[in-house]
Fold this sequence. Notes:
InterPro entries: Transposase_22. The protein is an alpha+beta fold. It contains three helices and five strands, in the order H-E-H-E-E-H-E-E.
Amino acid sequence: MADHAEQLNKLERFSRRNNLRVIGFPQQKVEDCLALAHNLFKEKFKMPDAKLERAHRDGPKMDGRPQHLLIKLNCYQDKIKILQQQRQVRTSRRPDQSRPAREEKMVNTSLRSEQGGNEVQVRSR
């Protein structure tokens, strides 16, 4: 039984490998999350050709805060490029706060959104 639980955990981790979580991205009542994600990658990360499988809002609704935007990419290399570019934006903004790149750990970086100046964080697991 423990072996099955371990296998299930491994499969779940593998399925989340291509996911990105965007925190703080402004939310409208009616929106196309996939189009928002494409636009974010095109404008902020200069990746208009990033292939996305799906995107949707996730997490509990809280007053005054947008739900997280969960994005599943088709290609793991696209995710790596996005995370690397996010780090470059962060280190160019705050060079004293830079840290070495490690893809295996959770990455929590932030980027100012032009829409209202909200803090937007991109996380990977």
